[in-house]
């Protein structure tokens, strides 16, 4: 019976796929003149190249160099996708026509299975309703309350690292510590909950689960388009059985990761609601003293009109989404910054000098305004997030026929000049965050160079004229429009507090271990050809270097 159900599901999915492919090939005929690479295979097109951990870097760079700002690439069985870095086109996709260019069904289904009904799993009015409740807790005024929590957690990290190198220089695996710190930061400031993962060196179950989620899931990206049909036609008990006990080891690992995330979110939410029921005194005794994002959200939800309230399922979804998004992306960004500072000792020394002088003037730890008035610290953060955005690409699909205007005309395969592209409903487009942020046409001949000083002078006119529609520093790092990263200010603050805490006392140098940065849903470092996120660096005390 089980096998019959599986075979029936496969047959239905195959029939639907065949119909979709035939229909789309007819509707996408007007995309034939768009330049692009040949298909890598009849079945999967260029998708294995787009989503390759190692070869993906060269493939993405080649698309920009050979074909320009709009590229046609091949998907499943001849389906056509558009790979886009044109800023005007991106403005239409993320801002002007954002409700036509929605998240793909595969993306939504995937996130619903991973996180529940949170911001990353909803569309349209449902998404706007959730965002409306969340916006106030990510305001600048609320961020100011987070500084003491950030300083406390980062201070615990500093003490742990100092303890490890007080006997002399030592190689330390830094991704573990950045992951633990990012989780503790979002735990305390976001959920009013301590995972105790900075002081507990044994490793936290939830931290390990989130850290390995994307590397485990990434090979399935090629098949994500089938996910909505699987969810629709395969009963949940069968999906769960296959995921947890089926013959695919990676799928079993993914199911275990999701189970840990969902169980943890359920436990934390129960504690938060119990404290609220007991009154303000119980809330004040919690980590964060009731000022954390989740406590504020729960209170706002209780006070909201009935039609605007989030359900229990949605609250759990927000928690899982917050934990994942804040931990993984911040950990990736912090690891990259420390790697670059270890590689560029002159930049590290200059940044350390700026931080120590500011702390001397402030008479101690830096507050919100102090941190945002340090030009070199800001420049290092902006340049790193420009050149190495934690999330390199995102996908959208058209919910209706639409015409996409281009800021820069492209030359068609027949030599014609193309200034706008008619796109049929259900056509997928890839937003290349990496490509826009590294565009030579926008950023100049040194676009691929990590040069923080570019932010200490007026930006080139080409950057201003590009009108990149992102919410952060003329880049697409945190996206733009109604689905821009809601917590990007939170992330920036975390990064700045951590650097201000570590650099005055610790020096970072490259180790002899070869590090490779893998192209995934999230950029991450690993040792050699390994898949697990890892990055050993050599650390020592600044006082020893001075002595």
Account of the 3D structure:
This protein is an alpha+beta fold and 547 residues long. It has a single domain, classed as Cytochrome P450 (Cytochrome p450), CATH 1.10.630. Helix content is 54%, strand content 12%. The protein is built from 23 helices and twelve strands. It has helices at residues 2-27, 47-50, 56-67, 87-96, 105-115, 124-134, 140-165, 174-191, 205-217, 227-233, 236-245, 249-278, 280-284, 293-303, 312-343, 345-362, 368-371, 375-387, 433-437, 440-443, 461-466, 488-502, 542-546, and strands spanning 70-74, 80-84, 101-102, 170-173, 393-398, 402-411, 417-423, 428-432, 506-510, 515-518, 524-527, 536-541. The protein is globular and about 70 Å long. The termini are far apart.
Short description:
This protein has 547 residues and is of the alpha+beta class.
Give the terminus-to-terminus CA distance.
74 Å
Shape summary: globular
How many domains in all? 1
In the CATH scheme, the class would be Mainly Alpha
**Strand-residue proportion:** 5-15%
Record keyword descriptors for this entry.
547 residues, 3-stranded antiparallel sheet, Cytochrome p450, alpha+beta, 12 strands, 5-stranded mixed sheet
Layout of secondary structure:
Elements: H1 2-27, H2 47-50, H3 56-67, E1 70-74, E2 80-84, H4 87-96, E3 101-102, H5 105-115, H6 124-134, H7 140-165, E4 170-173, H8 174-191, H9 205-217, H10 227-233, H11 236-245, H12 249-278, H13 280-284, H14 293-303, H15 312-343, H16 345-362, H17 368-371, H18 375-387, E5 393-398, E6 402-411, E7 417-423, E8 428-432, H19 433-437, H20 440-443, H21 461-466, H22 488-502, E9 506-510, E10 515-518, E11 524-527, E12 536-541, H23 542-546
Parallel strand pairs: 2-8
Antiparallel strand pairs: 1-2, 3-5, 4-12, 5-8, 6-7, 9-12, 10-11
Helix pairs in contact: 7-8, 7-22, 8-15, 9-12, 11-12, 12-15, 15-18, 15-22
């Amino acid at each position: 019976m089980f096998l019959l159900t599986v075979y029936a599901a496969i047959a239905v999915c195959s029939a639907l796929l065949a119909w979709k492919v035939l229909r789309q090939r007819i509707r996408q005929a007007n995309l034939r003149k768009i330049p692009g690479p040949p298909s890598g295979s009849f079945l999967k097109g260029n998708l294995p190249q787009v989503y390759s951990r190692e070869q993906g870097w060269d493939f993405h760079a080649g698309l920009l160099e050979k074909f320009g700002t709009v590229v046609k690439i091949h998907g499943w069985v001849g389906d056509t996708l558009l790979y886009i870095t044109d800023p005007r086109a991106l403005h239409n996709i993320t801002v002007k026509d954002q409700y036509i260019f929605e998240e793909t069904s595969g993306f939504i289904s995937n996130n619903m299975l991973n996180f529940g009904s949170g911001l990353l799993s909803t569309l349209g009015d449902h998404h706007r309703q959730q965002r409306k409740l969340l916006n106030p807790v990510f305001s600048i005024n609320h961020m100011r309350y987070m500084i003491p929590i950030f300083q406390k957690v980062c201070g615990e990290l500093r003490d742990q690292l100092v303890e490890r190198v007080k006997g002399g220089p030592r190689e330390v695996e830094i991704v573990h510590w950045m992951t633990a710190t990012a989780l503790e930061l979002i735990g305390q400031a976001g959920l009013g909950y301590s995972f105790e993962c900075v002081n507990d060196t044994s490793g936290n179950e939830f931290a390990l689960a989130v850290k390995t989620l994307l590397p485990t899931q990434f090979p399935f990206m090629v098949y994500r388009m089938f996910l909505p049909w699987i969810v629709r036609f395969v009963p949940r008990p069968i999906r769960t059985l296959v995921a947890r006990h089926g013959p695919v080891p990676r799928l079993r690992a993914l199911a275990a990761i999701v189970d840990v995330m969902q169980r943890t979110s359920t436990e934390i939410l129960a504690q938060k609601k119990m404290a609220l029921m007991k009154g303000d005194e119980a809330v004040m005794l919690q980590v964060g003293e009731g000022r954390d994002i989740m406590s504020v959200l729960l209170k706002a939800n209780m006070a909201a009109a009935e039609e605007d309230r989030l359900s229990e399922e949605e609250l759990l979804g927000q928690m899982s989404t917050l934990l994942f998004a804040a931990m993984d992306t911040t950990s990736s960004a912090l690891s990259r910054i420390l790697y670059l500072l270890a590689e560029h000792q002159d930049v590290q020394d200059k940044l350390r000098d700026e931080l120590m002088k500011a702390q001397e003037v402030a008479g101690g730890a830096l507050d919100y305004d102090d941190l945002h008035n340090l030009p070199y610290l800001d420049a290092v953060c902006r340049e790193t997030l420009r050149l190495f955005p934690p999330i390199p690409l995102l996908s959208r699909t058209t919910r209706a026929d639409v015409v996409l205007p281009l800021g820069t005309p492209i030359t068609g395969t027949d030599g014609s000049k193309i200034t706008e592209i008619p796109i049929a409903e259900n056509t997928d487009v890839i937003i290349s965050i990496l490509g826009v942020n590294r565009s030579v046409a926008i950023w100049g001949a040194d676009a691929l160079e990590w040069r923080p000083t570019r932010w200490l002078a007026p930006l080139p006119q080409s950057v201003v004229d590009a009108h990149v529609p992102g919410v952060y520093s003329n880049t697409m790092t945190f996206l733009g429009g109604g689905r821009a990263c809601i917590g990007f200010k939170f992330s920036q603050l975390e990064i700045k507090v951590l650097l201000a805490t570590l650099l005055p006392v610790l020096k970072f140098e490259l180790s002899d271990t070869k590090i490779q940065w893998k192209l995934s849903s999230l950029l991450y470092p690993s040792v050699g050809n390994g898949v697990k996120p890892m990055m050993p660096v050599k650390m020592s005390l600044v006082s020893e270097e001075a002595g």
